[in-house]
Design goal:
The protein has helices at 2-42, 51-54, 121-128, 149-158, 185-192, 198-202, 213-223; strands spanning 59-86, 89-90, 94-118, 131-133, 140-142, 161-167, 170-173, 180-183. With 230 residues, the protein is of the alpha+beta class. The chain has one domain (2-223). Helix 1 runs parallel beside helix 7. The longest helix is centred in the N-terminal third of the chain and has 41 residues, at 2-42. The N and C termini lie far apart (64 Å).
Length: 230
């Protein structure tokens, strides 16, 4: 009996270790995909987030490969990562979920990379909430692409979040009204080895894990290091 218990303990231990390794790989891959999305969108100046918005960004969120599919009922779902600007640079990242639905005669599916930019303090505070709805709790607008400084200024004054998408190589602003954004506490706790409030992480009180450094370097490269006025 004792031998059987010992075997079960070993098997359970090995299973938990394998699961932890799988979870870590999943989060590493998500951060890598977020970095690649930032690089791909920002590497084409005439199609990228305008400099006037990038340099004033308060927070940057990236959702690689958000899936939209439908057959009568539509559904959208994605997993992403967010970092916010602090006096010492960009904060350690947190993980978020985005989900929504629609109804209508539709069929098909596609994967879309999304970038969300909080352009003021209200947008930052929205990202600290456990859950909020774009277009309801938080005003959002499809962000301009390229070097349209006037459009950048106008949109920044009337929206809290600006959004961009890339689908099949096409870059454009995207309307995310009705999409729900929520904290992914499980994955965030996993990468930090324990629970930390989103407020604490995004204010810069928690050191970023090593695996997040390439993503944060990419954000700093394109969005700047200096503290943004909020």
């Amino acid at each position: 009996m004792k031998k059987l218990v010992g075997i079960l303990v070993v098997v359970i231990g090995m299973s938990l270790t394998a699961r932890a390794a799988d979870d870590a790989h999943k989060l590493d891959a998500r951060l890598s995909a977020a970095r690649a999305t930032i690089d791909e969108i920002m590497s084409v100046p005439d199609k990228a987030v305008p400099d006037g918005i990038a340099r004033k960004a308060v927070c940057v969120g990236v959702v690689p490969g958000m899936v939209k599919g439908a057959f009568i009922f539509g559904a959208e779902y994605g997993q992403g990562v967010v970092t916010c600007r602090t006096g010492a640079g960009w904060s350690a990242p947190v993980f978020i979920r985005m989900a929504g639905g629609s109804f209508g005669f539709q069929a098909g599916g596609q994967g879309t990379d999304l970038v969300l930019v909080a352009v003021n303090e209200k947008g930052f505070q929205d990202l600290l909430h456990d859950k909020f709805k774009i277009g309801g709790d938080a005003s959002a607008a499809a962000g301009p692409v390229g070097r349209d400084a006037q459009a950048s200024t106008d949109l920044s004054m009337r929206a809290e979040l600006l959004t961009w998408s890339r689908s099949r190589g096409v870059f454009a602003g995207v309307d995310l009204n009705g999409i729900s954004v929520s904290q992914n506490r499980e994955d965030t706790d996993e990468i930090y080895g324990g629970p930390h409030p989103f407020n604490q992480i995004l204010h810069g009180a928690v050191a970023p894990p090593e695996v997040a450094e390439p993503f944060l370097h990419a954000v700093a490269r394109y969005f700047g290091n200096a503290e943004a006025s909020r």
